Amino acid sequence: MTFRFIHSSDLHLGKRFGNFSGDLPGRLREARHAVIGKLADHARKQGVTTVLLAGDTFDTETPGPDVRRQALAEMRHHAPVRWVILPGNHDSLQAAQLWATLKAEAPDNVILAVEPQPFELTQGVALLPAPCTTRRPGRDLTEWMDAATTPEGTIRIGLAHGAVQSFSEEGNGLEVIAPDRARRAGLSYLALGDWHGGVEIDPRTRYSGTPEPDRFKHDRPGEALLVSLDGPSADPDVTALPTGSFAWRSLALDLLDGEDAVARLEAMLPEARLRRQWLVQMVATGRARLEGRTALSAAIEHARPDFAFLDFDDEGLATECEAGDLDAIDRAGALREVADALLAETGDANRSAEERDIARSALARLYAYAQAVTP
Questions:
Q1: What are phi and psi of 320, to 5 degrees?
Q2: Could you tell me which of 222, 256, 264, 362 has the fewest CB atoms within 10 Å of its CB?
């Protein structure tokens, strides 16, 4: 038999995004809620009826009633698509009130995978869930799967949330889930959550990644996985499905002295109509002339309103300058005296590298100021 389903995780519904300002946090929260509908649309188009959510469906153990109830209402709307929700480390079973409330409110097409025991998804297909008992269980919650019995010829699907090897969003490096758990437990597929970027551990073990990116760490689009299993012994066929609304990008602008910095910048950025959905961290390094650095800063400020978020770090960009460049600041007077002194400091071998870099940055700011006030 063939069984097909969608594997997703880490929706983090209700995430507050307090590090951003304005209306962006609300837009990002709404995009996470909209993922439910996107997953359901993919399910209908692919002809599958089961979506496995491998933990952290909610961002906290105490999601607001609006977050919880609106999510369940959206899932109910997409019946007969069936949603299987696994407790993760952010919404673990330790939050007894949350799971009791979900049990009372969940519609018929929502299954709460809160017991570590096999249950039948459909005839010949068993799900083996490993719900997170606490935020940091400190043990391999998938170990029980090895001894779990299912009828001969059953397709066995594991569902878990946590770190395999160094894959942990908490950054603690714990090696908790055995990387060969699928082989040990005779699983046709082990659907994992926790790591927000899609990763293949082996042909039968994968992190789906979050369907809606929420950080710059991974530089990957939001995706879910369509998984097709042709019997218990065949390797799964896995296809990535696009789900993300926002793109989070870390961009490196490494410049050579004399290079057109603004042209390089424009070549890296998306067309204007797409920028509203982009969050960008850009780091400029290398070397630039005073004029080029000033033009680059102005181009960044001009582009900033086009983006959902644009952060620019040019601390690693060295400024090249010669005495003739200072004429653009002033040919005489106090400003020219300051510029000459700063230029001298940039080449003073008796000063530390840090002091010379500070002088270069100050000179670049002075140049930008002079250009701004020149009629």
A1: -90, 135
A2: 256
